[in-house]
Amino acid sequence: MNHMLKLAKDRAHRARSEDPFRSGRLCRVLLAALVLAGAPSRALACEAMTGAEYEDPPESIEFDLPAADWHVAFRGVSPSYARKEFVPPNEDLSNWTQLLAWNVTFGRSRFDLTNAKQALLDSMRAQCPTLQSRDLPSRPGDLLYEWWHTGCVGQPAQHSLMRLIAGETGTHTITYARRGRELDEEERTHWVRRIGQLELKLREPSKGESPAFRRAQLAIWNGEYAAGATVVQKLASNGDPRSQELLGRLHVEGWGVEQDYTAALRWFERARASGLVRASYSTAQLYDAGLGVPADRARAMELYRTAATGGLAQAEARIGYLLIDGLRTPVADEAAADAHKWLEQAVQHGHAHARYWLGRLYEAGVGTERDLARAVALYRQAAIEGEPDAQFWLGKLYTSGTGVQPDPRESRLWLTRAAMQGHEEARAFYRQHQISFRRTGSRAKPSAP
Question: 318-432: what fold?
Answer without folding.
Answer: 1.25.40
